[in-house]
Structure formats: C-alpha cells, structure tokens
Amino acid sequence: MRPVLSLCLNLALVWTSVAPQTACRLRERFRLNEMYRKGDVVLGGLFEVHFLTVFPELSFTSEPEQPRCERFDFPGFQAAQTMIFAIGEINKNPNLLPNITLGFHLYDNCVKLGVAFRAATALVSGTEESFSDLGCTGSPPVLGIVGDPSSTHSIAISSVLGLFRVPMVQYNRGIWSTAQLRF
C-alpha cells in the first residue's frame, strides 16, 4: 500500500509542476516610439512620425524581432510638435485652465494600423502591455486622443476606443462623408 501511495503522490507533484498555467502571460512589451509629459489631465495622440515599417525576416530558430519604424516623415512630426506647442501655450495662460496642467502622451503609428491599435490600447490602459479586462473601472489615463490622420484607421481605432468611452478626434483633413463621431 505504501509504494502505491508514494507513487501517486510523486505523480501528483510532477503533474502539477508541468501542468499548463491557465493565466495568459505577456512574453514581451511592445516597443512603441513615444513622447510624454505629465499633467493633471493627459491627452493622447497618434501621429505618423515614420512612414515605413520594416518587418524582420523570420528564421524560426530564434524569437522574432519586433518591426522597426524607418524613414522620418517631417509633416507627421510637425503635427505632433504642433500638439505639444498648443498644450504648452494652454499651460502658460492662467486664464484658460486655472490650476490644471495639460500633459500629453504621443505615439508614432508608423502608418500601420496594427501599430496604431497597440498605441491606442496603450493610451487607454496606461501600459504597453496587452490587457483583456473590459470591465475597467475608474477613468482612463488619457482624457481623449487626437488621432490617426488616416480616415479608415481613425474609424477602426475609434470603434475600439468607444468600448472604453475615450473620444478620438482626427486631426487631418479627410473625406467628411466617412467622418463619424464615436464615443
């Protein structure tokens, strides 16, 4: 009887040590290009600072590298700098928002919808790690997002942001018939 009990106990210990874990774990953080300044109220932004995304070749012998953003886009960088300048001017004027400091958290979307989605979820969750809790409580880290210059990207991203009640405003001129206000 004793050897059977010992065998069962050993098997139980081995089984629990190799059993798969039920909780999902993030293996790695996304590396997103960003600019940040603290404030009482933080506004998010998605801008096209680079216009080419290079996807590394897959070798299947090592972990894949994350895509890199290349080729600097001056107009996209200028749009991001315009938002930073406007926030600075608002903060300088004590009559506009007394006792409130605006901050910003801007991301480069590299003209890719997947990168823009990662950045948008990082803005509403406050982390670059993925999350799955749609029952979030409290207010999100950003009050709103000045969004992707592409109309199709903005509509797709605003649909996701609507789940968290974060508004998005498109800063670039687009086709007005496709522009929709979403919360």
UniProtKB/TrEMBL annotation:
Residues 79-171 form the Receptor ligand binding region domain. InterPro entries: ANF_lig-bd_rcpt, GPCR_3, GPCR_3_Ca_sens_rcpt-rel, Peripla_BP_I. Keywords: Glycoprotein, Membrane, Receptor, Signal, Transmembrane, Transmembrane helix. Transmembrane segments: none annotated. Its main location: membrane. The keyword Coiled coil does not apply. One of its GO terms (cellular component) is plasma membrane. It is found in: Membrane. Residues 1-20 form the signal peptide. GO terms for molecular function: G protein-coupled receptor activity. It is a multi-pass membrane protein. PANTHER family: C-FAMILY ODORANT RECEPTOR OLFCQ19-RELATED, CALCIUM-SENSING RECEPTOR-RELATED. This is Receptor ligand binding region domain-containing protein. It comes from Synaphobranchus kaupii.
